[in-house]
Amino acid sequence: MLSAVFTTAAATTRPVKQVAISRIEQMPDMPSSYQMLNWYEKARKFDAYVFDWNNKGELGPLIWEDDSCRNVKQKTFGLYTTLGDIRQGPLHHGGEFHESLNSLTAILGAGLVGIDKTNQDGRNYVKMLQNFFNSDNGWNIIMNNTNPQVANLGGGYGRDWWYDVLPNALYYAVCDVFPHVKGSESIMRSIAEQFAKADSVLAGNYDYSYFDYGKMRGGRSQIPYQQDAAGGHSYVLLCAYKKFGEGRYLRHAESAIEALLAQKESCFYEALLPLGCYTAAYLNAVEGKKYDVHKLLDWVFDGCKSPTGRTGWGIIVGKWGAYDVSGLQGSITDGGGYAFLMNSVKPAWPFVPMVKYAPQYANAIGKWMLNNASACRLFFPGCIDINHQWAPELRNLTDNNVAYEGLRKADDYGKAELKNVSPVAIGDGPKWIEGNPTTTMMSVYSTAPIGILGAVVDTTEVKGILRLNCNVTDFYSDRTYPVYLYYNPYASEENVTYKVSGKCCDLYDVISKKYVARNVTSNKRIKIPAKSSRLIYEIPAGTRLKFENGRIIANNHIISYN
To answer: Which parts of the chain have pLDDT scores under 50?
Structure first.
């Protein structure tokens, strides 16, 4: 018996062998055009600009009051999806055409960087989001619009599956950042029930373009099948399980992941597959499952290659002109490449906390985040050369607070001045409806999630070595102890200053399975090995670690599942 215990403890303290993701291996160790914005500051400035009801800018306020009281007997707010969209605002369509994916992400991002959106200028914006809970139509989930009357004006509502799933994942995230808002728990319960019923009806077959949550049946159209909706279902149901503790939500989370893994190839469509990666990793670590997380990650990064899916959608690798663009998400193939800011930011939400449950991917995620968080600046008109943006005359329109929707390898509008110019900051807004102005290339919707980067990404004194907060988007999980990922892209060992979060503590690296420092009371210099990571838990000084069944436990809190 003593020998068995010793063997288990020895295995538990072995360093975690890192697993490479082939497409991330193709990215530069250190982008030659590297530049890291202060994303925390940028997110807070974005919130102040967009939620300014008296904005004196050229376009006026980007927010308005929607007094239609759909679904809930309260007024709500609308935000422009893009700047100056002629379909939106208080004077068009009763002020009802606005998108939850915009509002939810803006509220989530603000909350993640410490802004209290339950009491800002006398308004409870979190409560106001409840108008997107579509009860009047019988679907009883959060949808992208408040009602079907404006659904055909743009965006997706009841016909494009990811548009109906992602708002619910975002709503769960918002409710973790802002708990105890009146009415929120009943909405979360309803969402969980609807998704559980849907998963039962689907019975492993997610081969649909959309799903009617009122009639509980799938539908097919000219829109490609979106089997990665199973990843969104699984994530929401896992959150519901962690929130409410009901085992059937866990069982349906597992069922949805199994449906996702049953696909023969990548079905990455827009934004849901990364959520499935996190869910699979969590279930492996916490629930003892053996899901193939590596396959799911490859499906995200290599992208969809199926001719019947959203062919080419994945993670971009390369250099366009003088700019490194590796790590951005979008189409790998459209015109040589078309990246989107919203899609590039949002995977940080599940991928960074995922390493707590799958630390074998710490190097891969650290390297991807280094590239991606640097390249995300290129969507902002003040952060890319004027010769590389479609409308340089609009450079100062929003004081660099609102970004272009996209970044193309090459202009697709045929502007003579941009011939042979690469990349080009750009947007699709003018294509959506005749008469939409050039300003609609700049997107509030796309910029809204930057609070995720603001909460996750911090810099150190060593260029390119980031401090990534693995807890802040690990919603409904045990976050007793601070956890930070540091990745060193250099071929030599580097020293950085660790900023202590709390009182006297020990710093334990769950990758090397060693203490980095003990009895730390102030900022401490630590070593990061060459081209390696540290995943550091900040635990109370003197904590005695226990080794049980391959896990490392600190004061009854699991800090390593490997």
So the answer is: 1-7
**Quick one: which of 143, 101, 473, 104 has its CA closest to 278?**
473
What number of residues does the chain have? Answer: 562
* Residue 199 burial class via C-beta count within 10 angstroms: exposed 0-12, middle 13-18, buried 19 and up: buried
CA angle 468, 471, 473 (to 5 degrees): 95
Query: Tokens 């053996």 belong to which residue?
Result: 290
| Distance (Å) of CA 318 to CA 111, 299, 322, 375 | 33, 18, 10, 11
Angle at alpha carbon of residue 543, lines to 541 and 545, rounded to 5°: 140
From the list 135, 5, 148, the residue with the least C-alpha distance to 72 is: 135
- pLDDT, position 157: 79
Residue 342 near residue 304, CB atoms below 8 Å: no
Those residues whose C-beta lies under 8 Å from the C-beta of residue 78, and which sit 6 or more positions away, are: 63, 64, 65, 66, 88, 89, 90, 95, 96, 97, 98, 103
Q: CA distances (Å), 430 to each of 79, 88, 173, 438, in order?
A: 18, 14, 32, 6
Query: 0.70 cut: is pTM over it?
Result: yes
Cis peptide before 28 (omega within 30 of 0): no
Q: Which helix (H) or strand (E) holds 185?
A: helix 184-202
Q: Are 353 and 365 in contact (CB under 8 A)?
A: no
Q: Token pair of 515, please?
A: 């203490």
Q: What is the largest CA-CA distance in the chain?
A: 78
Q: Which residues of 482-505 are buried (b: 16+ CB within 10 A; e: fewer)?
A: bbbbbbbbbeeebebebebeeeeb
CA dist., res. 230 & res. 273, Å (int): 8
385-440 pLDDT, tens digit per residue, is 999 999 999 999 999 999 999 999 999 999 999 999 999 999 999 999 999 999 99
Write the CA distances from 172 to 47, 76, 125, 206, 229, integer angstroms: 20, 19, 15, 22, 16
**DSSP character at residue 376:** G
Beta strand 442-443 with 524-528: parallel, antiparallel or unpaired?
Answer: unpaired
Residue 152 CA to residue 540 CA, distance in Å, equals: 55
